[in-house]
Amino acid sequence: MAAHVKGKILAVIGDEDTVVGFLLGGVGELNKARKPNYLIVDKNTAVTEIEEAFKTFAARDDIAIILINQHIAEQIRFTVDQHTASIPAVLEIPSKEAPYDPSKDSILNRARGLFNPEDFR
Fold it and tell me: Any signal peptide, and if so, which residues (predicted)?
């Protein structure tokens, strides 16, 4: 499956294992300004750097989806929660170190708010 949808690409913000996995899958790109579509986050990465990368990816018109490890999204939860545009979509994904917790996923929680549980009975 190609990462391209009408010229749009994925962006990845994650720990080394996650980002390298996606890069091996072929999602790595540099735009015209030579800026990559990924950020590897480790224990030395400043929260401001993560936030800046997220905001930059969210503002780029060539990015359709931002994949972010949930434990990293937690560090910039306010910024992730403020992103309400449908494109780029933000998907919180698990990492080897941190399993996925649906209760922390702001997009999933927002989607839940759109539907009344009665609608599904």
Answer: none
CA-based nearest residue to 65, from 45, 49, 85:
85
Residue 111 has pLDDT above 80, yes or no: no
Instruction: Report pTM.
Output: 0.82
**Residue 117 contacts by C-beta under 8 Å, 6 or more apart in sequence?**
none
Please give the structure tokens belonging to residue 102. 């649906």
Between CA 115 and CA 113 the distance in angstroms is 5
Do the Cβ atoms of 39 and 53 come closer than 8 Å? yes
CB-CB neighbours of 97 under 10 Å = 10
Cα 107 from chain centroid (whole Å): 11
Q: Is-contact 15 42, C-beta < 8 A?
A: yes
What's the per-residue H, E or C state across 39-101?
Answer: EECCCCCCHHHHHHHHHHHHHCCCEEEEEEEHHHHHHHHHHHHHCCCCCCEEEEECCCCCCCC
